[in-house]
Every structure is written in structure tokens, then in C-alpha cells.
Amino acid sequence: MTSAVPTLGTPVSDADPFCDDVLEDPLPFQAELRATGPVVYLNKYDVFAMGRFEEVQAALTDWQSFQSAAGVGLSNFRKEKPWRPPSLLLEADPPHHDAPRAVLAKLLGPREIRRLSEAWTADAEDLLDQLLAKGTEFEAVTNLASAFPLRVFPNAVGIPGNGRDALLPYGDHVFNAFGPANELVAKGAQRVAELSASMAAMCDRNVLTPGGFGAQIWEAADRGDITPAQAPLIVRSLLTAGVDTTVNGLAAVLYAFAVNPAQWSRLRENPALARTAFDEAVRFESPVQTFFRTTTRDIEVGGTLIPEGHKILMFLGSANRDPRRWENPDQFDLTRDPSGHVGFGFGIHQCVGQHIARLEASIILTAMAKRITSIEIAGPTRRHLNNTLRAWESLPVRIRRA
Ligand code: Z7Z
């Protein structure tokens, strides 16, 4: 006899974490989730949710029991055909995961990417000088949080100028598609064929600039570290996971500073805090809010039996604000040590591009700290709703020049 799911005693919730109200402001839902229990069954989607730091971190560590190859969205690849060829990194487990991961880990390692600093600093300074020459009020998502990654990252990968417009909307759809098939996914689906074609074109060996990350991925195939069939998909991973995430990470840190002016003063006094500030913003806002795993066996977590083959929804954003783990979690505070947050994930799948993200953020923040004495919100802000990302559509700001 198979027992009913969930088993007796498991806390149950009827809430929908992907409805517009929760996406607009997930904090009340997350507080309730953490209060309800270490594992909560979500009726609406037949999934088990984790919102506390300890269980989220433990599940991310235990890749043997919580697999990724069945997809890290709600869709279970054991039962449903994936909407795109699965990612060789994200949607794979060892041993298949390991060769693609090793290629990117080497290319994107902290020492390897230092060579980018000089050019990226010049780009940041030029971008800011042009922006500040126009005035002291601007929309910070378009003009800063998107503009900087879109200027530096595609160049580093080595993709040509045309086609770049597909990067943000394609990423937006990928991150929506990890959630349920709601309105957000339906809207993105209208452009998916066109955007996928643009992405595929940018992964072609013939268009990638020599010396860039893309070309180097193809060289790894020449060496036999990966197969030639894997190379374009690994380039796709870089372009999918590397743009919307950093854009929203930068938007998060800009917003956090705009509403916490004392922290901006602290950064100005000590620009070496730029990296800490970015990690604290990733903890505080968690640009990647959620993703899923799938159980490979019956497993008990926090007194709840989760049966084999079930989807687990992990709330990174909630774990990063869990008062069991963080003192004053709702404060953006540069004196805290944010390391150990799960905003970049944890374990074998932890963000392989995190050093790039930190480099982009620390360069733009350092350049801003030199030029800007204060930053404040200058008008109505607007969230951009996405099933996975905590994002901004619009952040009007007013700054004061140094
Ligand atoms: O490989 C990929 O295409 C890819 C796509 C999305 C890799 C990672 C992600 C991702 C990043 C998913 C952060 C969830 C959270």
C-alpha cells in the first residue's frame, strides 16, 4: 500500500508562493512558512517547501538525496518533457555534471578573471561619467543595473553586438519557467522560439570572438575536456545565468543603499567594503528567490517523511532572512559578515559565476563611491514580477555628486 502524501502530522499550507501578491512582496509569506515548520506541504502544487536556513542548506548539500537532473523547476523531467534541452550544469547530477562544471570553474575562477578588472573599471567610470553628466536624477535599473552588465559581460564572453537584445528577455523566461505555468510563463512563451534562436546563434563557434569565455569553452572541447556537442550548451549556460542575475543583484544593492543612507556613508568611508556590501545585498534581497530539487529516496526532514520522486521547493530568500541563523535579518548592514548566505546556492551547484558577479558589483560600487555622496529614491519604484527572481522594473533615484 502506498501511503497518502503528505503523511499525517506534516504541516500543510494552501498558499500560492507564485501568485502576484507574494511575488510582489514575498516576506510575509516566508515568515509564515518558517513559522509553520521546517518542511511544509504546499497543497496547490503537491510539493514540499523548506523556508528555514538549516534545512535549505542541508538539502543543497545533499545532492545524492535531492537531485537536479529531474529539473530545478516545478516540472518533473521524469514525467514531463523539458521545454528546452536541459542545462548540462544546472539540470544535471554527478558524474555528468562534473566535466562541464570543471570547465566553467576554471574559466571563471577568482584568479582567472582578475585580468578583466582594468577594462571593466574603465567601462564603469565611463558609464558613470556619462550618466552623471546628464543630471542627478535617473532611472537606475535601465541606466545602471542593466547597462553595466550588458556592456561588460557579453564582451567577456565574446558575443557579437547583434543578438544581445535577446539576453534579458530569454533569461527572464527561463527563470519564469522554473515556476508553475502561470500568466508570466504564458507571456514569455510568445517569444520563446525567436529568443531561443538568437541564443543558439550566439553559442556558435564561428561568431564567438577569440579569447573570450565562449571561445575558451570551445577550446576545452578541442582538448577533449568536454565534447563538441556540449560546448554550445555550456556557452548557453553562461549567457542564461549570467545576465538577469547580475542585473538584479546590482539593482538589489542600489536599492538597499538608497533606503539605507548610513550604509552608503560607510561604504564611502571604506570602499573596500564593496564586496561585503554586494554579498549583504544578495543575502538581503536574494535576487534568486527559489528553486527546486527532486528526492531520490524516501527521506525524513524535520520530522516529515518526504517520499521518493517528490519536488522540494527551497526558499533561498527565506533562508537568508531566517532569524534562527541571522541577527536582525531584515537589516541591510555592512558591519555583518554575510558569508554563508545561500543566495548563490550551496554545495556542488553553487553559482560558478559568483566571482564574476562580485567583480562587476565591486567595480561599479567603487566607481560610484568615488563620485556620489548620497543616493535616494526619487519617485515610485516598481517591481518586475518573475517566478524565480526578485527583480525591479524601475528604481528612480536622485544622487548628489561628490
Ligand atoms: O545553465 C543554465 O542554463 C542555467 C540557468 C539558470 C544555470 C543556472 C541557472 C540558475 C541560476 C537557476 C540561479 C537558478 C538560480
Q: Architecture in CATH?
A: Orthogonal Bundle
The residue fraction in helices comes out at 40-55%
Ligand catalogue: biphenyl-4-carboxylic acid
Return Rg in Å.
Answer: 21 Å
Query: Counting H and I runs of at least 4 residues, what is the number of helices?
Result: 16
Structural class: alpha+beta
By CATH, the topology is: Cytochrome p450
Number of domains: 1
Q: Which geometry do the CA atoms define?
A: globular
Largest sheet entry: 6 strands, mixed
CATH superfamily: Cytochrome P450
* Assigned CATH class: Mainly Alpha
Name the helix and strand elements from N-terminus to C-terminus, one letter apiece: EHHEEHEHHEHHHHHHHHHEEEEHHEEEE
Strand content: 5-15%
> What is the mean predicted local confidence, pLDDT?
97
- Kindly report how far apart the N and C termini lie: 72 Å
The neighbouring-strand order within the major sheet is 1-2-3-9-6-4
Low-confidence stretches: none
Number of strands: 13
